[in-house]
Q: What sequence folds into this?
């Protein structure tokens, strides 16, 4: 905060939205818009350069989305506030953003007073959630707690790569060449994969990957 004004970056992939928010914020003496970003990567770049007090972050953006950008921002700049802007009710994505470190949520059609109040709460170390979004988050959290973690969540990144290659019909030798590992290592990974997925072999593993949406049929 400089000159009694909070420094803000607006991250949204729609120019019209950014301009509307900028006009709204610049009518308030407490705020100064110091930068605008059209995607998550640009938001991170500007945050490092400009050191704002808060980033107003859209969830859905081309390239790096708002959830990943929020996670990286909070890791790199733990004292920087992140307030999520959303125009829809994607409950699971909102919950992911909370887990990434977002301190608040606003619908894009929020009133100027609500935007101002939300920003002030977040920069002062509190949180803000629009009641309708909070209800959605609580509903999604309750459903998530009832759902068991899928078996493939236990796979390591390399095991996932092997499973995806297997699901494309590649042989052990072809998998080894593609991933630049030995065929023996491929067999070791496959044994681990079959055990974690509780399947009896390649065909069942392939069917599992298709059923769980890990691969697409063409």
A:
């Amino acid at each position: 905060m400089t000159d009694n004004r909070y420094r803000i970056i607006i991250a949204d992939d729609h120019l019209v939205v950014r301009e509307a928010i900028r006009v709204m914020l610049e009518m308030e003496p407490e705020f100064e818009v110091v930068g605008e970003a059209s995607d998550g990567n640009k938001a991170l770049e500007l945050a490092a350069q400009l050191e704002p007090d808060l980033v107003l972050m859209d969830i859905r953006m081309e390239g790096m989305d708002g959830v990943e950008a929020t996670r990286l921002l909070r890791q790199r700049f733990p004292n920087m506030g992140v307030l999520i802007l959303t125009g829809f009710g994607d409950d699971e994505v909102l919950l992911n953003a909370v887990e990434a470190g977002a301190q608040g949520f606003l619908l894009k059609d929020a009133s100027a007073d609500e935007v101002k109040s939300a920003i002030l709460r977040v920069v002062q170390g509190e949180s803000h959630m629009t009641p309708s979004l909070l209800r959605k988050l609580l509903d999604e959290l309750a459903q998530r707690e009832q759902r068991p973690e899928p078996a493939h969540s236990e796979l390591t990144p390399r095991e996932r790569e092997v499973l995806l290659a297997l699901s494309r019909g590649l042989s052990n030798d072809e998998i080894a060449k593609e991933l630049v590992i030995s065929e023996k290592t491929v067999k070791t990974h496959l044994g681990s994969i079959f055990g974690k997925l509780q399947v009896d072999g390649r065909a069942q593993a392939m069917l599992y990957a298709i059923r769980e949406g890990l691969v697409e049929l063409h």
In short: DSSP finds ten helices and six strands in the chain.
